[in-house]
UniProtKB/TrEMBL annotation:
Residues 5-199 form the Glutamine amidotransferase domain. It is found in: Cytoplasm. Its EC number is 4.3.2.10, 3.5.1.2. This is Imidazole glycerol phosphate synthase subunit HisH. CDD domains: GATase1_IGP_Synthase. InterPro entries: Class_I_gatase-like (IPR029062), GATASE (IPR017926), Imidazole-glycPsynth_HisH (IPR010139). Pfam families: GATase. IGPS catalyzes the conversion of PRFAR and glutamine to IGP, AICAR and glutamate. The HisH subunit catalyzes the hydrolysis of glutamine to glutamate and ammonia as part of the synthesis of IGP and AICAR. The resulting ammonia molecule is channeled to the active site of HisF. PROSITE patterns: GATASE_TYPE_1. Keywords: Amino-acid biosynthesis, Cytoplasm, Glutamine amidotransferase, Histidine biosynthesis, Hydrolase, Lyase. Pathway: Amino-acid biosynthesis; L-histidine biosynthesis; L-histidine from 5-phospho-alpha-D-ribose 1-diphosphate: step 5/9. The active site is at C80, H183, E185. It catalyses: 5-[(5-phospho-1-deoxy-D-ribulos-1-ylimino)methylamino]-1-(5-phospho-beta-D-ribosyl)imidazole-4-carboxamide + L-glutamine = D-erythro-1-(imidazol-4-yl)glycerol 3-phosphate + 5-amino-1-(5-phospho-beta-D-ribosyl)imidazole-4-carboxamide + L-glutamate + H(+); L-glutamine + H2O = L-glutamate + NH4(+).
């Protein structure tokens, strides 16, 4: 069995796939419903605008597939825009409905002294260190590039934050569904260890 990386026409598919393989797992880049639902784990990547991504997902029918995967026991990870898509809505370039897997809204950073996009290495703060995603890890720095951030409606869904003028959602999770605002595959040792801990939850080794 493999880790399915959802191919809906937007995302850093190659770099995520290579990172999965470096950690000893088989990566399958696919837009096939049966392959996604039959995988040991699912990764929803994403680069670009929220609204465009949702159009691609709906036109391909993959929005329903991701929701079906999220409703089951298979571990699911959204990365960067993929994490934001898990939420109910976004205000990026208008109002857009998301996958509504996690209740909450994606909003733009407020104008002020801090630069937008939020770009650079920032330290994580684990809010629920007992979560298996953080097993054996100490909070350190990961690399962010984003102009919008998620606000969770349910406090317990917020697993880690970083500081950028105020606490900013960095990692979310509920049950077997997770999201990371940063790209773990581009975030050094801690990023790869976080990705490795997620993959360990799938029980799938190459």
């Amino acid at each position: 069995m493999a880790i399915a990386i959802v191919d809906y026409g937007m995302g850093n598919l190659h770099s995520v796939g290579k990172a999965v393989e470096r950690l000893g797992y088989e990566a399958l880049v696919t837009g096939d419903r049966d392959a996604i639902l039959g995988a040991d784990g699912v990764i929803l990547p994403g680069v670009g605008a929220f609204g465009d991504a949702m159009v691609h997902l709906r036109e391909s029918g993959l929005d329903a597939v991701v929701k079906e995967a999220a409703a089951g026991p298979t571990p699911l990870l959204g990365i960067c825009l993929g994490m934001q898509l898990l939420f109910s809505s976004s205000e990026e370039h208008g109002q857009h409905e998301g996958l509504n897997i996690l209740p909450g809204k994606v909003v733009r950073f407020a104008p002020g002294e801090l630069k937008v996009p939020h770009m650079g290495w920032n330290r994580l703060q684990f809010l629920h260190p007992e979560n298996p995603l953080f097993a054996g890890l100490e909070a350190s720095h990961v690399y962010f590039v984003h102009s919008y951030h998620a606000r969770t409606d349910v406090e317990s869904d917020l697993l880690a934050v970083t500081d950028y003028g105020h606490p900013v959602t960095a990692i979310v999770g509920r049950g077997s569904n997770f999201g990371m605002q940063f790209h773990p595959e581009k975030s050094g040792e801690l990023g790869m260890k976080l990705l490795g801990n997620f993959l360990a939850l799938t029980g799938s080794k190459a």
